[in-house]
Amino acid sequence: MKTEAFRQRLVARMEELVRRAAQTGADLRREGEPLSPDLDEQAVQLENDEVLQGLNDAAKREILQVKQALSRVVSGSYFSCTRCGSAIETQRLEAIPYTDLCSDCARVQEREARSAVS
Ligand SMILES: [Zn+2]
What we know:
Blueprint: H1 2-28, H2 39-75, H3 90-95, H4 103-117
Helix pairs in contact: 1-2
The structure holds zinc ion.
Zinc ion (ZN) binds at residues 81, 83-84, 86, 101-102, 104-105.
């Protein structure tokens, strides 16, 4: 039952993300509003594109994560940390339904990501 509740949340999240990616994708292709002939307006539109592109990328990244989480639901490994194998805290899954790491491993990974950047 618990798994089913998470699965439903993931599916709902996926639908929302797919909608968002489709919408930002359509906006980026200017399906609704063509690029303005006015240069000032164009500058605003292009700036807006960067924001849209960011949203579009973020949605696509999250879609991948949600997809992976759904396949972990199917394979029965949804509640296991992919890094250390221990159980992912329910509280953490409620906050981030697509996570595949327990909070300890997430902290370690975050530290690694930070030291890779700096
Ligand atoms: Zn772990």
